[in-house]
Amino acid sequence: MDNIVSLYNCLYDMELYKNNFISDEIKKKCIGDLVQFYNQMHNENKLVGLFSPKSFMIDLNTGDIETGANIEVEVGLKDCEIIKFIPPEIIKGENEWDVAADYYCLALFIYSISFFSYPFDGKRVYECPIVTTERAIEEYSNPVFVFDLVDTSNNVGDSTDYRVRRLWNEESSQALKDAYIKSFTSAVHNKDFRISINDWMRLLGIASIESDLKSKYILSVDNIQKELHCGTEIYESDIFGGNSSIKIGVVVASKKHASVMALGNASNYIWRLQLPDNQEMMIPPNSVAPLAKGTVITINEKVVNII
Questions:
Q1: Taking the domain 215-306, which CATH number applies?
Q2: What's the rounded Cα separation, in Å, for the pair 98 and 170?
Q3: Residues spanned by CATH 2.60.200 within the chain?
Q4: Cα(93)–Cα(78) distance, rounded to whole angstroms?
Q5: Which residues contact 169 (CB under 8 A, 6 or more apart)?
Q6: For residues 253 and 228, is the Cβ–Cβ distance under 8 A?
Q7: How far apart are CA 225 and CA 306, in angstroms?
Q8: How many of the other CB atoms lie within 10 Å of CB of 173?
């Protein structure tokens, strides 16, 4: 079942209706894909540039992203929501778009996807909502981070965004939190302090994520084990024993990232899926299940482990 939403909706849907990734692993994969996209563009000597959070689409089931078309800065300056993703030096007309501007936006997108919240939407913005481009230009030319340790004028409060404060407190990597603080305080106006793509890859452990995604998976049920690769077909005999050659599943690759695999339900059963973080979901026929080590799939009362 499709669960594709815009980044804008992820940021600003009411909490009651706000969707989320089906697992932390899928969120990490989404962020990893984003960083790799920036990395690939820079390796080709291209700038990523500006795009709208309304056209930045995220598949919360697979982590796939589609950034949408690039937007000219002049056009972006006419939209309050796009101004949020324009570096201050560009808003002020002091610089053309460059690698440092890409670094600024990458940090914004990583944080926004991690917390489903914008790093400069705090107390100051809640008390005086931004509804005009003039006000947006004023605010985001000199933004204040919601977790700024010195200037607390725009901090998140318990009454404004409890969820973001909870997620921030739950973040176990102090190095990552320090990177966010640096990105949205000293690096806002000093381009030399902005965090590079390689540093984000190191901080986020993206190399290890890629390694895990590309490693082989093994389907294990009772005393039966079967290696899973893209295109591997699963038969009734693999799950229930016997000699049945009826196909009930197939391993498929993401359309955008061949190294990311899922298990397609080709049976007439509704599968019950338990992800490594204990989240559960139902996989009806003709749908796909995320393929991750530690996942448990129940097919017609038969328990299948992915190892």
A1: 2.60.200
A2: 34
A3: 215-306
A4: 14
A5: none
A6: no
A7: 10
A8: 11
Q: What fold does the segment set 4-211 form as a domain?
A: Transferase(Phosphotransferase); domain 1 (1.10.510)
pLDDT in tens, 126-167: 888 888 999 999 999 999 999 999 999 998 866 557 788 889
Report how far residue 192's alpha carbon sits from residue 185's, in angstroms, rounded to the nearest whole number.
13
Q: 198 Cβ partners below 8 Å, 6+ apart?
A: none
Q: What is the pTM of this model?
A: 0.69
Q: Is the dihedral of CA 216, 217, 223, 224 positive or negative?
A: negative
Q: How far apart are CA 284 and CA 301, in angstroms?
A: 15
How many angstroms separate the first and last alpha carbons of the chain?
24
Look at residue 207 in the predicted model and tell me its pLDDT: 54
Q: For residue 59, what are the β-bridge partners?
A: 4
Q: Give the C-alpha separation, 45 to 83, whole Å.
A: 25
Report the C-alpha gap between 27 and 10 in whole angstroms.
Answer: 13
